[in-house]
Amino acid sequence: METLQIRKAVENDAEQIIQHTKKVLEENPDVMGTTLEEFNITIEEEKDWIISHNKHGLLLVAEVNGMIIGLLNFQLSPRKRFSHQGIFGMSIQEEFTNRGIGGALIKNLFAWAKKDSRVEKISLEVFSNNKRAIHLYTKMGFTEEGRRKKQIKLGPNEYVDDILMSKFIL
């Protein structure tokens, strides 16, 4: 029986988070802003990233039987005029999609944001070819604010739009 646990990431998760990200990049190379070849993060760099996210936002991991299979990172803007809002990204390994894990991660983000008086707006960017993610975000109450045409180049003469979505927490 699989047991799902969602919790804040800690420094000791660094190696598993790197492995998770590499797996997601292998499984779905056309839905993330980096490529597997570009993703060369060291464990120390990942630990620093975890510390930063926990200080200026939220970093959640989804675990099944002790293995990290999902990740949600939310970062508040450090600038005063933008400090009421932040942006998040999320990834789930293919084997664990369509099980409600993405929705559970977002619900945890909402619960955390409602307790943090700084957060008024949560934003995200999603590739237009990531239909499953767009469906989930819409279901969770996010609305499209804009679209950057051909913002992402997947290959020669192959582009997708970058869709900007947000939800107000007030």
TrEMBL record:
This is N-acetyltransferase domain-containing protein. It comes from the Bacteria. Residues 4-170 form the N-acetyltransferase domain. PANTHER family: L-AMINO ACID N-ACETYLTRANSFERASE, L-AMINO ACID N-ACETYLTRANSFERASE AAAT. GO terms for molecular function: acyltransferase activity, transferring groups other than amino-acyl groups.
